[in-house]
Amino acid sequence: MLAGRRLILGICGGIAxxxxxxxxxxxxxxxxxxxxxxTTGAEAFVTPLLFEALSRKRCFTQRDFLSPQGGLIPHTDxxxxxxxxxxxxxxxxxxxxxxxxxxxDLLTAIVMATRAPVLLAPAMNTNMWEHPATRxxxxxxxxxxxRVVEPASGELACGAQGPGRLPPLETLLLEIEGLFVEKxxxxxxxxxxxxxxxxxxxxxxxxxxPSSGRMAVxxxxxxxxxxxxxxxxxxxxxxxxxxxxxxxxxxxAAEMLQVAQGLFEKAxxxxxxxxxxxxxxxxxxxxxxxxxxxxxxxxxxPTPDIAALFNARKRPGQIxxxxxxxxAENLLPRAREKLEKKGFDFLAANAxxxxxxxxxxxxxxxxxxxxxRRFHGSKEKVALEMLQEVARAL
Length: 394
Ligand SMILES: Cc1cc2nc3c(=O)[nH]c(=O)nc-3n(C[C@H](O)[C@H](O)[C@H](O)COP(=O)(O)O)c2cc1C
Known about the structure:
Blueprint: E1 6-11, H1 17-29, E2 33-38, H2 40-43, H3 48-55, H4 63-66, H5 74-81, E3 84-90, H6 92-100, H7 106-113, E4 118-122, H8 126-130, H9 132-143, E5 147-148, E6 152-155, E7 161-165, H10 169-178, E8 189-194, E9 199-200, E10 206-207, H11 214-225, E11 229-234, E12 246-249, H12 253-266, E13 269-272, E14 279-281, E15 300-302, H13 306-311, E16 319-326, H14 331-342, E17 346-351, E18 359-366, E19 369-378, H15 379-391
Parallel strand pairs: 1-2, 1-3, 3-4, 4-5, 8-11, 8-13, 11-12, 13-16, 16-17
Antiparallel strand pairs: 6-7, 9-10, 14-15, 17-18, 18-19
Helix pairs in contact: 1-3, 5-7, 6-9, 11-15
Bound molecules: flavin mononucleotide.
Flavin mononucleotide binds at residues 12-16, 39-42, 91-94, 123-124, 128.
């Protein structure tokens, strides 16, 4: 997707500027031509020499803006040259200037002068990220049509804990590729179920499973990148869904069925990635039952099989994809059996080891193809590649 693409990488003055060096290397490895532009702030952290060596191109800085050489008009020439622009890291100060439409520096001027798609990757201290001015600027920038990749959470260089880290480079690469992917799900509605369900035993105890919901969130992101309207009906998640996804939080399997029902009617594509609890207590106990009074034997009943119920009501043209998590040795035969039995159009089979993990290996079965296709890598990468395949069936 990136081979031969002309990209500008704008780097601002934040600590994560050092990570941009690796990003240039990875983009070049994927075949992109990368033109780096450093802000004045960035030059306090990293040098043009580093980026010239990595990109094999002249690195533009603020000095080039108002005293250009060789007949260049750097901001308009670069703006016209670029097929895509990425600003990573984007500082609070850069976001503010762009939101106000104030092209007083080279990078802001390039971004304002281009017609190419622009991706902003903010990184900053958590309080700066949560500041109402930053929130407002980002809302504005999204309104202007800029894409924003949310920062990751974790420990920041300043010692703070929370959102503000530059996302992992693989996530960034995927978002950059998203600038160029065909919007094969534009105008389509995608329903995704994700995360575990919780079946209450009493007011404070429940039956559940360790699903993180990462696959569903990765599918939601991929469907957004492909241009779909995305609805995610989910149990408790360990990762946040990206902005732009319409989320419908639920707790139990019965609630998931109820909420997903109305959405399924309108969906073009339904992706059943939830780890729905298979059983629920026959009679949940009221209030918080004392430890000594808690029954030692539980009477359980099966929860509704949401995917099978919906598959039975599919209208022509509607496509469904299910997931099968199996022991490695039974994976492939069981997957084919589940595809048929439950009436899916596609079935993504993965081994038990994928549960909770960040990386995955998936075999995608379909009704129309004899042999499954294998996808491997981060859940984000696999989700995008898999959805591109599924979109062809729509
Ligand atoms: C050590 C240090 C680290 C900084 N890290 C960040 C950061 O991660 N994100 C940010 O928005 N600003 C950060 N700043 C503040 C910016 O450098 C400052 O706002 C600067 O004016 C940004 O310039 P630019 O946006 O033109 O690159 C940091 C400043 C210092 C001194």
